[in-house]
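re: that chain from earlier
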Amino acid sequence: MSAVLDYAKRHELTVTGLTFRSQDVRPGNVFFALKGANCDGNLFIPQAINNGAVLIVSAQHPAEKLSIPFLLSNDIDRDMADAAYEFYGRPSDNLTMFGITGTKGKTSIAYLLESILIAAGQTVGALGTVNYRVGGQKICDAPNTTPAAIPLFQLLAQMKQAHAQSVVMEVSSHALELQRVRHIWYDTAVFTNLQRDHLDFHLTFENYFAAKRKLFENVADPQNPKPNRNAIINIDDPYGQQLAASLQGRVPVITFSQKNPKADFYAQDIHESLTDTSFTVNGTPARIRLLGKHNVYNALAAWAAAAAHAIPTKTIVRGLDALPGVPGRMERIDEGQNFFAFVDFAYTNESLERAFATVAPFKKGKVFLVFGCGGQRDRTKRPLMGKTACTQADRVFLTNDNPRCENPQQIFDDILAGMKECSNYEIIPDRAAAIRRALATAQPNDIVIVAGKGHENYQLIGTEKRHFSDQEVVRQFLQEKTHVQTRDVVR
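^ sequence. v structure.
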């Protein structure tokens, strides 16, 4: 029993809901006063009470006596997860739960696996970076890759009510560390790779890996009641090899690889184009409408996870081919122009390198890159990205990403520290102007990559969240350019 709900029951409180947002409090709600990095929920306790809260839960004593019951928590993340799990009816217990973790590839794997499960006739719930959805219909945009415990269990309850059989989840290291997924027993855990990221939160790479491992300790836990538990692991990644070795004898380990023929799922005969990628897995031909060898890894992960749950190979191949693309992942924008334009979510050095590697075999002209780095995030990756950008692109248009409350000039200076030997760049702080400048510069057969924001339809400047979509800016410019060219031809 949840300590919070038990307290409410003993004090004869009628609980109608749970929230950690004071503005969302409704009569009968329990308010969890979370102290975050940028906002302290304790400051909003009076507002929560005015809105009808019946119980306040906090990790610190209130500044003054409250007019409603108060519960002091020595682990508020745990108590919030416990309460959410119980209040929403333990929704994950009877769902097949797929958890995907790693630095890169989570979103693409989730989309590919969802497509396979749909091809197998299932109703599928999906929780990830782009949005939350069930039965192929979007529930809402995703404020976090993995939602906080209260909205998470509320969403899982909604998915269960919609008769979902399976849920595909991207599980972030933050979620694992902050106990957001506490009480979820996973059937399958997928490991993609481990690269430098989120060190502003985890501080060390070892801490980052330790957070990721928690998902696999979940499936290996003898107390996990799920009957068909397994771990799907990329053994071409050194951390994947380490993880696989540590799990042997504790839970079935299913491996995938592009390098090791002894892997359970081995891809070869890879053929790339700027429209799709074909390959074979253990001799079976397949195709995805995603670009690059890194997406073959993502397809392998989805394939292995589906096969672990007895989905036939023919269905897996059909499901992979059915996915038209993943929002903001090397997403091609084609408005009839005579050059290529892609929007990609590349926001680390490794993902930038991957984007360049994807288009390199097809380079006939120049490659232009538009990118920046997010503010109030890991500064150590910025010079690395700068160096990769200016050494692999013919020209770089350095611009704002999500500066948040950090001085944009500081962000540029950090990036430029890695571009000291280069002169093939220009700084255009206005992101839309930078995108238009890159597109206007492109000639026939050139390639323009707009990197960093991918699927995001907003820009965070200071404390303001403004609507902004790289795709919309690119598409509008190309439509206008194509219209002008067509009009000139008609004349």
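The chain is about 35% helix and 20% strand.
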